[in-house]
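Example complex used in Figure S2.
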Amino acid sequence: MYDVNYHRASSVEEAASLMSRAEDGKFVAGGQTLIPTMKQRLAAPSDLIDLRHIASMKGIRVEGGKVTIGAATTHAEVAGSADIARVCPGICSLASHIGDPAVRHMGTIGGSIANNDPAADYPAAMMALGADIVTNKRTIAADDFFAGLFETALEDGEIITSVSFSAPVKCAYAKFANPASRYAMAGVFVARFDDGSVRVGVTGAGSDGVFRHKGMEDALTSDWNAGALDGVSVDEGMMLSDIHGDAAYRANLVKVMAKRAVAAAG
Amino acid sequence: MTTVNMTVNGRKVSGEVSDRTLLSQFLRENLNLTGTHVGCDTSQCGACVVHVDGKAIKSCTTLAAQMDGTSVTTIEGLANGADLHPVQAAFREHHGLQCGFCTPGMIMTAVDMIERAKASGRKLDEKTIRAELEGNICRCTGYHNIVRAIEAAAAAMA
Amino acid sequence: MGMEGIGARVKRKEDQRFITGKGRYTDDFKMAGMHFAAFVRSPHAHARIKGIDKSAAEAMPGVVGVLDGKQLTGDGIGNIICGWMIHSKDGSPMNMGAWSALATEYVRYVGDAAAVVIADTEENARAAAGAVDVDYEVLPAIVDPAATLNAGAPQVHDNAPGNLIYDWEVGTDVKTVDEALANSVHVTEMEIRNNRLIPNAIEPRAALANYDMADDHFTLYTTSQNPHVARLVLSAFYQVAPEHKLRVIAPDVGGGFGSKIFIYPEEIVCLWASKRTGVPVKWTAERTESFLADAHGRDHVTKAWIGFDADNKITGFKIDTIANLGAYMSLFSSSVPTYLYAILMSGQYDIANVHCNVRAVYTNTAPVDAYRGAGRPEATYVVERIMETAARELGVDPAELRRKNFVRSFPHQTPLILCYDAGDYDATLDAALKAADYAGFPARRAEAEKRGKKRGIGLSCYIEACGLAPSAAVGSLGAGVGLWESAEVRVNPVGTVEVLTGAHSHGQGHETTFSQLIAERFGLPTDNVSIVHGDTDKVQFGMGTYGSRSGAVGMSAVVKALDKVEGKARKIAAHLMEADEADIVIENGEVKVAGTDKKLGWHEVCLAAYTAHNLPEGMEPGLKETSFYDPTNFTFPAGSYVCEVEVDPETGVTEVVQFVAADDFGRIINPMIVEGQVHGGVTQGIGQALLEHGIYTEDGQLVTASYMDYAMPRADNVPSYKLSTHETLCPSNPLGVKGCGEAGAIGSPPAVINAITDAIGNNNLSMPATPARVWAAMNG
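Predicted assembly (1204 residues):
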């Protein structure tokens, strides 16, 4: 790892100010992706601004069907939240399968979303839930937030402070883990809302990162049933291809995971 | 450089380290607690697992500076004097280790796993134990006896 | 059997330090003034070094040396050798290309070291290594073991034309085998690939070297399975230091699996650099360096033909293999696809005509050498895949086809050098089938079908040759060393015992099992015994641990030394108690005269040996004996494995739902430890079958250079295992032991693949059977 200056911010404002003074700074929360990247000398920020100790970025609020999760909330906290489980168990289940138990104790929802790893789990849920990504400057709809591999709508120095969404009537996430890394090779989050509409977020498989699958959404909106997906095609041209599976295989996985998610959502 | 203060295995410690120092390096090099091992660069093998404020984390994926002000328990601090922790005793009793390199991380992960299960009232069955060991790689034991050891320790700690 | 004697499930003595974090591995050691080495590794699979500009690196903070291959060879450090000479069938010696610990003119694989930086901290060394500017002229590379033999393929070494290291054969005359095949009622033909594996002991390799100018003496702490061999090779071949000026210590070692047998460039360079820079030098591999620069395993391409008569008896078996040895010939690499592979092709079967041809080749990939099983897993995979396939083609039960052809009388001379000494293959197959409820399989398959799962069952009946090895025999086959083992038993005046052994424990539990031999012999508690190993200053000489040899060879040496100790103790006791030596009985820590109430404590006899006040006429004082044991034959563990899988047809995921192993390891010293060895070996075999694959791109980049892409078996990839053992004693060593360290990795891969191909009804499936491959095989 290259040398770096570590700063611990105690407020969002302080974090923003520290970042503005840094030459080439990066925010760090759990650090579960950033620190391995720095260890491999693939990232060399001049400064790290730690967001884990900012009280206003922590915690979970559920008011009626509205769920708000502080960006510095860990995967373990989301997985174990009885409040969220009451209204949106799918997101708890997703969080409980990110990484491993030790990673879940450190990794945060904000970090995962800001990094937008094409194989990360949360982006699929954010897309499917139609979540709002709240920053220190604005609120960004998930559809507008994720912009391809490791790219987001975040501007320099912008900090995700929380995410919020209205709990769907039904939702579930099904993940097919890469046999080596255990990241998603195909992860599909399906959500059905009280107006009968369905949103489907797909991670891990797309060559351009997380995406929504319109064909599946239409099919499931008209018939909320795993079988409704039989006739839907997944475009192989959009799929990643690597040593772990070619595009045809990934396209198959997307469909199978979608069907399993629908079945799990009930 | 930065000064970090922690409680490690019940003892207050302080150290002057460069900001890039990993918790695993701080433990191994500054504190000479070499029971915490490093087996990979990508946060997957789990040989480095320690407890911070009672939760298992990967010390090779955490900066020492991030952990300033915390309480850390390493494998060296698990036993109560000469009395082994039930998980340590179970690993020996059930031959849950061979070369010993992954063992500290395995034991720290197992303690965390059992305590979480207890706190949530879940019973640890074999399937759950195997799933919870996702972040710990052992090349020697084939996991069979590690699973037996954790089952036995969970029963002993119930 | 006493409480802690042979056959007892004694808990391990070594565990206390490991479970409390007090194990001491190479990276745990520190020395005053210690500096760190970082290697400048080639990013190209094949290139000529036009020049190295070190100036920027030399100016960086903390740097005390930037050293290259020309300086290394200029200081007289010799090339890395392969210690086993193979002659091609035309009589010519193998073509060994030069391998310098730091490249001098060419780099030949990604990771090949071109220079090293020594600096005050690990980070400074790594940063400076990044600043060494090597000017490479990139050359075409070749990675595929079959394509490397094609005309026009890039040449890896000038002195290996066509990239051929040797073209070697063994067995029955090939014409005779061809005739037998031609006259067969049925011939099964297969093309079989054995996937490249990367060993991945969880402790990365490390070295800490110090040159002490005052004594003109070197010390090396290293992650070695055989510190004495390391010292010998470092001294005799690499001229790092004369043997008496070099101490090699292999402390606690975090797994080896073969990969820590070899003496690597990094150890040579750390020793040399310590003298050259005047500071102790430590190097610890990052995991990605382990992937790049540890010796890999397997990587064979094979064609095989097996013939049967009308009665389903095997008529002939012909095997043609290309073995990829990578860019350089590692220490034992030449022997792995020959004397550890080809000579096992008879399997458990009585086959009159077997011929195996092996071409070993160079490619621009990491060197390939022994990895758990070394050659024998590759052989077993060929034999047991083709037997299962033949059974399907012949329409007979795979178990019956095997039984039809089993060797049943011993000794059995195969056409492939080996003479099997003892075994009972029916017994292990019967035990495995019973434990697996083979008869109940169709019902289980039908039940799985209802759940939408494809269930399959597969067998593997393996044999291996281990207990390496009779020195004269291996010498006649080209080995550069003898493969005996030494032991020294020191009985202290108070009766406690120290056993010094040349075997090395890196997970095998020698401190426990070797102690059990003393417990058995003298009735002493194992706590009164210390096992000393892993330090060339303490143990005189030894060949180390690999090839499942610690029991069969290492323990045999201990037994021989114990015979001598016991003989002397009996003489002393007989003298002290005025009894006939033949009447002396040693048990439970006491030395008695049979048929009388005369007795002495063991410690009293030991003390008498050292006070020497009253010893038999002419006897030297003391109670310490040494033995060098050289085996008279290989040992032949064998067994049967049954794997049952369920495949998810939607995703291609294979779940191993049951795995049964029935092994014959000869006498078992500690069943708990033996079971642990089988668990670990089978898991590595399942890893090979389902998950692990070292993959290079066509231009020689290693794609699987971390755990992000190289799939290691994790706890949820494997089931709990059902094990049993059946003992036929090995007649060639005093304990009757055969060895158990590699069997699991040898026997399991074909059982898994046989089960999957049975489940999916498509036999065209290569290892690793990843979900994507299985799905493609089902949807092809």
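Residues 103-120 of chain B form the longest helix (18 residues). Chain B has a mean pLDDT of 97.
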